[in-house]
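An example makes the point: we print one protein in full, the chain in one-letter code, the fold tokenised, without further comment:
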Amino acid sequence: MTCLWVNEVRGPTTETILEIRDGLQAINPVVAAEFINLISEPGG
């Protein structure tokens, strides 16, 4: 899945985004919030 996203063939599903956010939240809540901000920006 990540390979496809990186190669811009297709974006990640909402479920994948939430899994990434949850993993980041467990490590560093500030980084998780920044991740959500970045992907929420137009063109992000």
Summary: The chain is about 70% helix and 0% strand. The radius of gyration is 11 Å. The chain has one domain: 2-40.
